[in-house]
indole-3-glycerol-phosphate synthase
Amino acid sequence: MNILDTIIAHKKTEVATRKAAVSIKDLEARPGYIIPVRSLADSLLKENSTGIIAEFKRKSPSKGFIKQDANVSEITTAYTKHGAACLSVLTDEHFFGGSDEDLMQARKNDIPILRKDFIIDEYQIIEAKSIGADVILLIAACLTPKEVQSLATFAASLGLETILELHAEEELAHICDATKIVGINNRDLKTFNVDIERSLRMAERLPADKIKIAESGIDKIEDILLFKQNGFKGFLIGEYFMKQEDTPAL
Ligand SMILES: O=P(O)(O)OC[C@@H](O)[C@@H](O)c1c[nH]c2ccccc12
């Protein structure tokens, strides 16, 4: 089993446990459920947008701990103050050391928030809304095209946007009407190899009407300029920011 298979197997058990513990009715009654949703698409298409999607990530299976004692409130507020277009908060506990609580703390910032997790079930989308997320991620490598279509349509019915994450050309068939934002992950989630050029190669193959985001391994302004020249509107950056002693100016 590769790491992605391991994560998904674990996620299935986790979702079953969560479903048994908290009913959908209880999720819908949470205060976060009724707060207005902020649009990532609108934020990225603003003329003066930095396009930066700044991620809060304590650890990852590929890197281990990046910043174990990181303070989510301080870091996400600094990201927002320095012009991030969106926050991304890992909520997966087991592999990434995140939590729903982290996202709820980040929610005090008035910009869109991506719930970064491995979504395989509608329940997790209701959960995302209940903790104040605006955007969810659907990863093509662990879903069928039909599942993407159905989960993205469900998210839209709750007012949430979806980023469809692609890595390989074979996954282009996962693109559907319900997903207007497409992220290209430069990191292969099965091997952890990072190749920045991947975004550029895949970009040529994407329909023109999709908003394009480059994800992972970005640590230079030159990378961002190159992505911009190739039509990317968003740049998802985690490790580079999390490794800084001070949160860097954008
Ligand atoms: O830390 P990086 O290399 O800047 O990458 C951020 C983000 O792209 C990465 O965390 C990510 C992209 N897709 C994912 C899916 C699940 C977990 C994590 C991810």
Summary: The mean pLDDT is 96.
